[in-house]
Amino acid sequence: MSTISTAAIAFVANRVHALCLRDSLPFHGWHHVSFVRDKSVEFSRLNGSDTAVVETAALVHDVNYLVRRNSVAAAGSDLRRTILTEAGLRHGLIDRIDALVDEAEMRTRHRGISLEAQALSDADTLFKALPVTPVVLAHKYLAENGVSLRELADKIVGEQRDAHDEGFYFYSPAAAAAYSRWATANLELWACIRESLDDPTVERLLSAVV
Hints:
Layout (H helix, E strand, L loop, with lengths): L5 H18 L6 H18 L3 H10 L3 H4 L9 H10 L4 H13 L11 H15 L3 H13 L3 H17 L7 H24 L3 H10 L1
């Protein structure tokens, strides 16, 4: 049974919300955190994992972007631990949540991660696979992290293709059934974007309009 109280989770949420408002992250801001939090709780209840731990991890999973743009999850460890300590969590839980965030990260996750990491990963992965993300949010990722369209396409295809092809893009059977079509279409789109950037005519077009 989790020892994370509702009050502690509320403290973490308020703290992260305030930091997101202060730094105004266009992609990894509170809108992203809220989505991942809500879906993590949903997936956690489906797979029987510790929902309070998953919810807390979801709230702090991207604080690395508050520390350094275009960074990996581990870059947020100190800030993550500070927030959790201020919320009154014991050291063992802080260690567990910090490790859970790293475990669920897209670029390194694997088939055998914990149930808690699966719930968090599925929520974060779904945000990436949403049909609206490349249309409404991709340009915000570019601006936030100072990367090129080619770099983003390489990152998405490079990090997500193996998990998709090997059958653990989503861990939850319900998530896989509901969202795999979106994931497949999203990956195909980004693969096509990457291919198109090799066309000199497309490169000239982008140079003229970006």
